[in-house]
């Protein structure tokens, strides 16, 4: 895919996030936050093994597809819906939909394991009623409980998602750290665009056409040698 040109993104609210809000999100989405994100490649390990993603340019295209047409967009929609969920029943129904939307056993593991870890550590540090949920649903709910800006939360979630997969690509392909940062920099405007568009989308607009990434997550289940859980 050719990553679409992205114009300057403008915030949908006139309220600027506070330093404390930005820092809390930075902590939640840091590689140091113990959700185990480093253990998941979202099928990238299989794609590299098959020769589909042999270099930095291919990694950028692969991740761009996932962000724009696959799990990135879907996760942003789930996150926003969780943030706006009116009650526990609506949140539980949304989480069930997020689980059903996963295309493979490994992708289900990826979102449920990270979501449970996020809920556990966040509830321990900032006591709140945060049940085990899929990752974007848990983050959306937590952001609402802590009165964090929705758009900023979605942007930073997608950037962290892309950053984790770039880190996996650096180790798997392998590519250098500099090339990895170039890939992430190129993807950052797309993270912003997808987050902004998700603010106006509903569950009725859920879709995923990143089929090769979905298939890669399935073939990874039987891959002979693996470094990652997915």
Automatic annotation (TrEMBL):
Pfam families: UreF. GO terms for molecular function: nickel cation binding. The keyword Transmembrane does not apply. It comes from the Bacteria. Keywords: Chaperone, Cytoplasm, Nickel insertion. GO terms for cellular component: cytoplasm. Required for maturation of urease via the functional incorporation of the urease nickel metallocenter. Belongs to the UreF family. UreD, UreF and UreG form a complex that acts as a GTP-hydrolysis-dependent molecular chaperone, activating the urease apoprotein by helping to assemble the nickel containing metallocenter of UreC. The UreE protein probably delivers the nickel. This is Urease accessory protein UreF. It comes from Rhodovulum euryhalinum.
């Amino acid at each position: 895919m050719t990553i679409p040109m992205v114009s300057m993104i403008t915030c949908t609210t006139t309220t600027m996030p506070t330093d404390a809000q930005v820092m809390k999100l930075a902590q939640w989405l840091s590689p140091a936050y113990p959700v185990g994100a480093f253990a998941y490649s979202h099928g990238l390990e299989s794609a590299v093994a098959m020769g589909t993603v042999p270099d930095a340019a291919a990694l950028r295209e692969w991740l761009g597809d996932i962000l724009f047409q696959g799990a990135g967009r879907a996760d942003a929609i789930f996150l926003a819906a969780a943030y706006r969920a009116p009650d526990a029943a609506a949140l539980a129904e949304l989480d069930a939909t997020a689980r059903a939307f996963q295309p493979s056993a490994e992708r289900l593991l990826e979102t449920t394991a990270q979501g449970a870890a996020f809920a556990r550590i966040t509830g321990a540090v900032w006591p709140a009623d945060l049940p085990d949920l899929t990752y974007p649903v848990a983050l959306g709910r937590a952001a609402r409980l802590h009165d964090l800006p929705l758009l900023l939360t979605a942007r930073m979630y997608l950037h962290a998602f892309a950053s984790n997969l770039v880190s996996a690509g650096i180790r798997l392909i392998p590519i250098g750290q500099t090339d990895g940062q170039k890939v992430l920099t190129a993807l950052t405007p797309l993270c912003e665009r997808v987050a902004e568009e998700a603010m106006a989308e509903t569950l009725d607009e859920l879709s995923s056409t990143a089929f090769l990434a979905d298939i890669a997550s399935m073939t990874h289940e039987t891959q002979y040698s693996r470094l990652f859980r997915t």
